[in-house]
Structure prediction request, 225 residues.
Amino acid sequence: MNKRTFLLILIVFLIKEVRADNSDPVVRIKKPRNYSKFEPEEEIPFEAKVTDLEDGDLSGEALIWTSDMDGRIGQGNSFSAVLSQGSHIVILTAIDSGRSVTRASIFITVGIPPEPIGKIEGSKEEKPEPKEPKIEIFKPKEEGIPSVVFLFVPPFGSFKDLEGQMLNVDPNKFTVAVYIMKDGVWWSKSAIKTNKDGKWSCDIVTTENDELAIKIIVYLIPIDY
Prediction:
């Protein structure tokens, strides 16, 4: 083997090694803005800028747009679509040639009127009394069964803590494991505070767009699990 052949083999090996460590695409949704509102039957413009270290700018079938209500709504860097009336979590999924995936999401509403602030009778405006949010707490069918219940679930888009309580267990021996679903993926949350009475709270908004989680699940587990 001569020196030139050896160098060519070495270069090919190094290229393969670099490509094996494939970087993730960088996604930025430009249109529409998060929390935008649209009229029914309105053409909504969608636009994004997606770059990848290995592939450069991504476009076409590498970019898939979906709605949690309407399913797949388009592909590519830009397009327009009419969405169903209601609240939508729109997710852009970018896949590069090395199959690395990055997702970004926004929340938009279509055709939902604002809540009334009160009714007007003559010249007098009456405003309803503020109401506490209704919380439905799970009740174990049988007393004495180890359980975990929700006391407060933050509304969609809220940055407040999740709150709950462990029932029928020793708080010194048990804790909770909290997970949220965001962009179709389950993420664990470890910022949990517990009290002697079994009540606990968890900061579930610790990374970008966590406030847009669509599902929350909590497990009651031994503290050394």
In short: Residues 147-222 form one domain. The helical segments are 3-20.
